[in-house]
Amino acid sequence: MGAGARPDGHGRMMYAPDAERGRRVVFLRGLELMARLGIHPHEKAAPQRIRLDVELLVRDEAAPAGVGPDDFRRVVDYQRLVELARAVVATGHVLLVETLAERIAAAALQDARVERARVTVEKPEAFSDVSAVGVVVERRRQENDLAGGSANFPP
């Protein structure tokens, strides 16, 4: 568990924003999509329902001073985050849930303000007697990459 992580009330870990270090968390929770995902013949034959959670630790230029300007351009847009996740899922069949989570995390880290991406991919219908199986992947921007990337998610 990373520094600053705390339970979110649903048994999952979520990052607590650290205003003293100038950080905030942007998240999407429970995005359900149909995905072509898996190694088994029945998974290759038809899409299946998946559920995604994404948490991004992003720089917060307003902290620790308090409230920043009410300007949309200064924040990571969660609508773009949803669109980005949908676009990655739509690229075609992926064998492993780990690969899908890694691709979403890598795409999110293309926004220069994102320092850490935590992606959960669940397959809720994989087994009839299990509510879900899946993976959680966490990726950090490398220290030497903090200045890299674009200001916003790629189109």
Automatic annotation (TrEMBL):
<dbReference type="InterPro" id="IPR006156">
    <property type="entry name" value="Dihydroneopterin_aldolase"/>
</dbReference>
<dbReference type="GO" id="GO:0046654">
    <property type="term" value="P:tetrahydrofolate biosynthetic process"/>
</dbReference>
<dbReference type="GO" id="GO:0046656">
    <property type="term" value="P:folic acid biosynthetic process"/>
</dbReference>
<keyword id="KW-0289">Folate biosynthesis</keyword>
<dbReference type="InterPro" id="IPR043133">
    <property type="entry name" value="GTP-CH-I_C/QueF"/>
</dbReference>
<comment type="pathway">
    <text>Cofactor biosynthesis; tetrahydrofolate biosynthesis; 2-amino-4-hydroxy-6-hydroxymethyl-7,8-dihydropteridine diphosphate from 7,8-dihydroneopterin triphosphate: step 3/4.</text>
</comment>
<comment type="similarity">
    <text>Belongs to the DHNA family.</text>
</comment>
<dbReference type="GO" id="GO:0004150">
    <property type="term" value="F:dihydroneopterin aldolase activity"/>
</dbReference>
<feature type="domain" description="Dihydroneopterin aldolase/epimerase">
    <location>
        <begin position="26"/>
        <end position="139"/>
    </location>
</feature>
<comment type="function">
    <text>Catalyzes the conversion of 7,8-dihydroneopterin to 6-hydroxymethyl-7,8-dihydropterin.</text>
</comment>
<protein>
    <recommendedName>
        <fullName>7,8-dihydroneopterin aldolase</fullName>
        <ecNumber>4.1.2.25</ecNumber>
    </recommendedName>
</protein>
<keyword id="KW-0456">Lyase</keyword>
<dbReference type="GO" id="GO:0005737">
    <property type="term" value="C:cytoplasm"/>
</dbReference>
<dbReference type="InterPro" id="IPR006157">
    <property type="entry name" value="FolB_dom"/>
</dbReference>
<dbReference type="Pfam" id="PF02152">
    <property type="entry name" value="FolB"/>
</dbReference>
